[in-house]
Structure formats: C-alpha cells, structure tokens
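Look over this record before class:
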Amino acid sequence: MFIKPSHPALTRLAAVAALALVAVAPVLADKPGTLVQQRGGAPAVQVISGAPLTVNVGDEHSYQIFNDQIPGVGQIYPSGSTGTADMGWMVHADGILYSPDFSNHSSGSATGSLGSRTPYSGRSISAVSGSGSGADPFQVTVQNQLGGSGLESSEVIRYVNGENYFTKHFTLTNTSADTKTVNIYLAGDIYLAGADSGVPYREAASGSIGGSDCGSPASYYILYIPQTPADAWTGAGYGSVWSQIRDGTLDSALSTTSCIDNGAGLQWNRSLAPGASTTIQAATSFGDIPSIVLFDLFNVTPDDGAQGSTVNVTIAGLGFASGMQLDFGSGITLADLVVIDANTATATLTIAPAATVGPRDVVGTSADGATSATLTAGFRVTGAGTPPPPGPTQPVPSLGATSLIVLLLGMLVVGLVSLRRFG
C-alpha cells in the first residue's frame, strides 16, 4: 500500500524511492490471473522518449508508460516491464475477443480473467517520427488484423513534450461482405505512483475513468479520457475489469472499495457496414488531472474548405460554454460562433482567397479564459480549384447540323490524305 506523507509535494519521490525495492518488481505469481508465458515472440516495441512521459508502444496495441515524476516505475502493471504491460485496445467481434498478445509479454501478465482471447495478427509498427513539439508531435502508427474476421485495425499514437498525457486514434475497418457488430475497449491494470493499490476515480464532466493514489488528499491520478464519448466504463479491481471485458459489457460503475489493486476501462459499441470504418479518440494521463478533461477540442466537421469560400462548421469537444473562443489561424475569419451544448458548437468560416493551403491547428480558449486546447491539424485549407468538368449542371453543347457536316467533311479529307500517302 502507498501511504501518502503529510507534505506530498516534497516527499512523494522519497516515499517512492523507499518502496522501489519491493514495488518495481512485484512477484507475478502472487497476483491472481497471472498467465503462463507462451513460447511465441514478444511484441515489437517502439519507445517514445519524451518528457515527462516515456511511452512504450507494442505492435499489437499494448503499452507501458514511465513518468519521470516517479523514476524507474512503470505506470501499468507489471511495473517492472521495460517492454509493454497490461494495457491496450481489445475488440469483441463474432463472439471472439481480439486483444494484445499479453501471454507473450516479456515481463508476464495478470490478464487471466480475460478468458479465451485471440491475439491480433499481421502486426506492423512504424518508427517514431516527429520532434515532440506541439506542431510536430512524436508519432507511432500500429496496424493489425483481427484474425479472419475481415476487420482491420490501425492506431496513431501521439505525444507532445511537456504534457502529462498521450493520445490515441484507434480505427477499425470492416473489409468483409457482412455487417459487423463490435465492442471496442481501452483498459489497463494501473500502477499508481509506484504502488499497485489505488482508489477508483471518475471525472464525471469528461467521462474519464481511472484511479488516484491512496493518499489523503490524493495527488496522483491515472485517467482514461474518452475524447470520443464512451458507451460504457468501469473503475474496479483489475480482475473485475478483465472479466467484464470477457463477458462483453462494462458495468458503468465505480467501486466504492478504497485502496484496492485497481484497473479501469472504457467501451464503445459500433455497427460497421461492409467497407465502413470507425475511429475512437482517447487519451491517458498520469499525475495531475490534465486540463483536457475540463476543456478540449475533438474534431471539426467538415474539416476542410477551399480558398475564397465560406464554410459552416460544427465543432465537437468538451467544456464548451458561451464566451469561449476559437482560432483557425491566419487567413480564416470566424463568425457566428454558437454554443449548442457542452460538447457542440457551430460557426461560420470565411477563408481568404490567399489563405495558405494546407493543414492548420485549431486553438480554443475556454469561456473563463483559464484553459486552452489545440486540435493539431484540425482543419485544412484547399486550393480554390478548377472549373468542374461538364456535368448535369454544365451540359456539353450540342452540335448543330451545319457544324456536324463540317466535322464529317473534315474527317473525310483526313482519311483521303492518309490513303493517298500510305495506300
């Protein structure tokens, strides 16, 4: 158990150091649900070496995260894992649970309560790109297949230095000839501030779920943040989280038992027609509760507009209120900003004829001015374009009788000349 000292800001690291010998490398055999490691290969891992977070990304949608506030301790169980650990994306489809290859993680796994599962196949992972700045985040792309279901998954992971959270865009595409009903999960066995015990916690305004350390007051949180609103969630003992995923439905309940070996999860339910896809956006934070759970920008629809045009857009996000501000960058004038509710606003964009073509960030400021959010490459300016080809609104001019005769005589002359030359 992690007991919070009386002065958390000055003594957290000392307490963690005192626990390090016993906390960094817990004995897997002592934890219910421990899996026997299989003989397959461990997932390939790319490491986003940022600050304060280091994010290890597996080629099968799994993670481990390190926070330099808590040196040397992974924030997902097993905390001693230098590869990936018990956190990732899972999908129920056609009665099968597709998941990361937990059984082959190099440091073991305690996901036995997931029951029967099928690891993702056809796995690939990109190198880390980007400089880690807000304009050029670190980025890794993962692509997988879900067995023979005809479903394919793709994920883009991004991290900006200085932030205590990283973001994930998980896309599921149905390449089969049948409609697929799927449940998508993001879940993990969280390891709060160097201890395997925590207090289940939910931030209701954003629907974020996770846990806090066992201190009073708490000063360290791990949160799963549904930037795409979730259909269900759970904050409970880690074994309960895995068994709920096994059974197909999270209970949307927060355990009232304090200081337990806890985990958390989010669930999205989708129906995908043949050829259709869905993208889930989420973030995971470590430490202080980040500002994005109070005010955030998720997407702009439509997300592009031509030079010289006027475009009516809908903006989705969190914490919207009258008085908020949006900036689409140079060359775009925003007018008629109307807040529909806490998650939706509309506006009219006027794009200058000379506006720079290409993507640009959308920057928002909350109504009280205390919080800002940036939607990286959230809108794109396209060229003014060329006149459209002839179509229903621009019919091809019909040839009159005289024009047709002239055309036929011309073709006849060309034919006779060719015969004389080559005949």
